Amino acid sequence: MKKMVGSLVLSAAVLGVAGCAGDSSSGSSDGTELNFWVFGATNYEELAAQYMEENPDVSIKVNFSEMGDLHNNLFTAVSSNSGAPDVTMVEVSQIAKFLDAQDRFYNLYDYGAEDVKGDYLEWKWNIAENTDGDYLLGLPTDIGPSVMFYRKDVFEEAGLPTEPEEVQPLVTDWEGFKEVAETVHSETGKVMLDTPETMFAAIRDQAPEQYFNTDDELIINESPYVREAYDTTAEMIKAGLIGKNEMWTPEWGNAMAEGSSGALLAPSWMVASIKGNAPDAEGDWGIVQMPEKAGNWGGSYIAIPKESKHPEEAYEFVEWLVAPERQLQSFNDSGMFPSAPAVYSEESFLNTSDEYFGGLNTAEIFAEAAETVEPIYMGKNYSIVHDELMTALINVASEGKDPDKEWDEAVKRITSQLDRQ
Amino acid sequence: MSKVISKVSLYAVLFIGAFLSIFPFYWMFVMATNHNSVINRVPPALIPGPELVNNFQNVLSNIDFFGAIGNSLIVSSVTTLGVLFLCSLAGFAFAKFHFKGKNLLFGLLLITMMVPPQLGLIPQYYIITKLGWLSDLRAVIVPGLIDAFGIFWMRQYISSNVPDELMDSAKIDGCSHVRVYWNIVVPIILPAFATLAIIKFMYMWNDFLWPLVVLRDESVHTIQIALRGLIDAYVKDNGMILSGTFWATIPLVLIFLLFNKLFISSLTQGAVKS
Amino acid sequence: MSADAYASKKWTEKRKESVSGLLFISPFFILFAIFGLFPMLFSFYLGFQRWNGLGEMEFVGFQNFAFVIEDPIFWKALYNTIIMGALGTFPQLIVAIFLAFALNSALVKFQSAFRAAFFLPYVTSTVAVAIIFGVMFSNQDFGLINVFLNLVGLDSVSWQTNEWGVKIAVAVMVFWRWLGYNTIIYLAGMQGIPNDLYEAATIDGATVWQKIRFITIPMLRPIIIFTVFLSTIGALQLFTEPLIFLGGGLRQEGITVVLYLWREAFSNMAFGTASASAIILFLIIIVFAAVNSFVVNKAFK
C-alpha cells in the first residue's frame, strides 16, 4: 500500500478507524520524488532505476498507461491543475493540443534547453516549440522512421526469397508490394498485413500533408493523399490481402506471435512490441526499406507539467534521459530510434546487430529510413480524425462494408466532433 | 411416470443453469493456467495447463496487483465503516426523533435515490479537482459515504426492531441520545450492519466508472481499474489478462462461498424489502 | 438557556430531541450537499456553458443540447442502450422466473447449493465479467463462442465489430451477471406463496405452465414490477461492459449513452455537451420509469 488514506475526520473520530497516515507524496524520505508517466514499449523504467542509482536523492516512480488514456488523463489533469505528474511523455500527434495549454507546462527554455538544442534533429525539435520560438514544451525522445518487417517463414512458404537483399528489389514500390502480397495470399492463404491501420499509415506518412493544414482546417476531402491511402488499403482489404485485426488488441498481438501475416509496416519502435508479442519467433523476421519511401510514425517528447514542485530536478532528469547516450540505450533495448544525430555516427550504434532479426544491422536500416523522413503538420485534433478513419477501415475489413460509404460516414462523424471542440 | 419425467426435466433445467453460471469461472482458471499460444488456437484449451505461476508473474510485471488490491481494500472498508456509522446515526434520527424538516429531508433523500448518479458526474469531478483530490483515494471514499439507500434501510430496520419503550426507559435513566445510540440501538441493529456492510463493500469493490474518472495515477488504482490496465499492456497475452482477472475474482468468490447464505440474503433482502 | 429553565420539562425534552436529530443527520447531509445535491444542480448550469476544462466558461444557451440532439451518434448510443438493455434484461427476467420456480419446487434437493451456484456470477465484478466474456467472444476463429458456432456448422462472427455481435455479447454479459440475482429475488417472493394454492391447482389438473401463469406471476406482481424497474434503470446506465469489450476505440456498435457522456467529458473535453447529455439521460430515465410503471400496471390488470 503505497499511499495511505488521508484522515477521514467524520468516521475516524467516532469509530476510531485506524491507519490513517498522511500522504506519501509529501514524502517520508528526504529526497525528491518524481512521478513519470509513460506509454508504449520503452526502457524508461530501467533508465529511471539507473538514474536513481546515480542520484540517490531523487526517486522516480514510473507509471505506465495506454497511450490514449495517458493523453486524456494528462489533459484533464493539467486543465484542472490537479493530478498531473512531474514528468510525462507526450506523443508527437498530441503535441499541438498541449501547446495550446502552454501555461500548464514549464517552458523548458527557462531551464537550459537552449544548450542542448543542437543535439537533436531540427524538425523534431521545432514541433515542440511555439510559433514564436521562445517556448519549448518538451525535449525530443525518439522518432519513428518506418520500415517493412516481414516473416521469412511465411515468405518461404509462399516460394518467395527470404533474405533482405533479395526481398528489397521486389518491394521498391506499392505495385511490387501488392504483387508480393498476392503471392503470399495465393500460396499460403495468409494475409500480407493483419491490420488495415499499418497499410493506411504507411502510405499516409509518405505524403507531404495529412489530416489538417497549418491553419488546423480539415483537408481530407480536398487533399488527395489521405484518400489515396484509404482507397489503396480498402482495395487490398477487398482483395483479401489485409486482415481485420485492430492494432493493440490481443488478437493482433497473437497474430504476430503466430506469424499469420506476411509483413508488418511499422516504425522502429515496433521492435519492442514484436519481440514482446512473439518471443519465440527469433530469426523469423527480416527487415527491408518501406516501398517507395519511409515516413515518420510516432515518436515522443518529454514535458514537465506546471503542477510539479520540482521543475529543476525534473528537467535535469529529462535532459539526462533523452541525452544521446541514453537514446542509444533506448534504441538497443526498445528500438526507439534516436532523434539525436550524434548517435548515428557512433561506432556502437552502427555496429549493432540484432540476433532476433537474424543478425541484421538494424541501426543501419532505420538510419537509412530516417534520412528520407520529412516533418509533417499533424494538428491538435489529429487523433479524432485518425480514430474515425480507422473505424471506417475496420468496418470495411470485418463487415465487408462499402469503402466509399464508410468514408462519408467517417467524415460526418469527424466534422461533428470537430464542431464542438 | 409423468412425475419422473418432470423431476428429470426439473433437474436438467437446474443443472444447465448451474453449469452456465459456473463454467466461466472454470474457463477463466483454464486460461489463467495456459500459455497464450494454447489459448489462441483451435480447438482451444479446456483443461488447466502449467502456466499458473508464469502468467501471474506476467501480471505482476504489468500492474501493481497487490497495491491495487490494497487500494480496493482501503477504499471499500473505510467507506463501508463510514457508511455504517453515518447511515445508522441518520437512520436512527429519522426513525425515532421528531424534528423540524424531518419529512422534507427524508423525502429529498428518497427522490435522490431515483436520480442516476451520472447526472452529477461532471460537477463531482470538478469538485474533486478543486479539492486537489484527483488521484487521491479520498476522491472515491468521501463521495462513497453518501448512501441514501443505507439511511432508508437503517430507518426501516430501527423503526421495526428498536422498541420505543426501550428508548423511553433509557431516557428516564438519564441516558444522553448519543449513549442511547451507542448502548441500545447499535447492539440491536448489528444484523442490519452486516447486511448493509456486505452491500456497500461489494458495491465499492466492484465500482468502475467513478474510480476510472478520478483515480488517474497507477499508485491509486483500485483492482478494477488495474484489471483494465492489463488489457492495455503492450504485450497482448490473454493468459496473463485472465490470470489477473482470476486472482482478483477468487478472494471475493471464496468469501462468498463461505458465507453464501448471509451474502444472498443480504444482497437480495435489501431489494425485496424496499 | 436561562429561559429554558422556566419551560416545562417536556418542552426541553422535545427541544433536546430536535437538536439531537438534526445533529445526527447533519454529517450525512453536509456530505450529501457537497458531493450529491450540489453536483446534480450544477449539472443544469454546466449544460448551458461551453467549457473545455481549461479556459473560461461561456454561456451558450441551448447550443449544447442542440449538439447532442442533432448528433447521430447520440441517437445511435440511445438506440444501442435500449437494444442491449432489452436483450440483456427481458430474457433474463423470464428465465429467472422459471429457474426460481424450479428451485422452489418441493422436489428439489441441494437447494442451497443451487442457490449459491446461481448467485455466484453476481459476486464477480462487472470488469471481470466483461474481460472473461470479451475473450470468449473473440473475433477470431479460436474464440470460444466461434469455435462452438463452427462446431455446429455456423460461420464465425466478428463479435467486436458486428452490429448485432456487439449487442449480443454485451447482453450476454448482463444476462449472466444478473440472472442469479433476480432468480433469488423471485425465489424469495415465491416462498411467500402458500403451497396449497399449487396443490389445489394440481388437483384441478393444471400444467406447470398454467401454474406459473395463473398463480406465480400474479402473486409475484410487486416483485416483478420492482425487478423490471431496477433492471431498466440499470440497463440505461450500461457503461463498463461495452467499454471493456470494445476497448478505447469505442466503436459505434456498442457506444451507450453513458459512454457517450463519458467520452464527451473525458476524451473530447467538452464538459458542456457532456452535461447536456447527462441531463438528457436523466430525462430519458424519468420517461422510462413512467412508461415502465404504466405498462407494468396495465399488463397486470
TrEMBL record, chain A:
Query: What range does the record give for the signal peptide?
Result: 1-21
SUPFAM superfamilies, A to Z:
Periplasmic binding protein-like II
Q: Which keywords does this chain's UniProt record carry?
A: Signal, Sugar transport, Transport
Supply the InterPro entries for this chain.
Answer: Bact_solute-bd_prot1, SBP
Calcium listed as a keyword? no
Is Signal a UniProt keyword of this protein? yes
* Top-level taxonomic group: Bacteria
**What is this protein identified as?**
Sugar transporter
Species the sequence originates in = Jeotgalibacillus proteolyticus
UniProtKB/TrEMBL annotation, chain B:
Instruction: Report the residue ranges that make up the ABC transmembrane type-1 domain in this protein.
Output: 69-259
Q: Which UniProt keywords apply?
A: Cell membrane, Membrane, Transmembrane, Transmembrane helix, Transport
Segments spanning the bilayer are 9-29, 65-92, 104-128, 140-159, 180-203, 240-259
This protein is called: Sugar ABC transporter permease
* UniProt xrefs under InterPro entries: MetI-like (IPR000515), MetI-like_sf (IPR035906)
Q: Name one Pfam family in it.
A: BPD_transp_1
Note whether Membrane occurs among the keywords: yes
Organism per entry:
Jeotgalibacillus proteolyticus
- Keyword Transmembrane in the entry? The reply is yes
GO biological process terms on file = transmembrane transport
What's the superkingdom here? Bacteria
Name the PROSITE patterns for this protein. Answer: ABC_TM1
Per the record, GO CC terms? plasma membrane
Please give the family membership noted in the entry.
Belongs to the binding-protein-dependent transport system permease family.
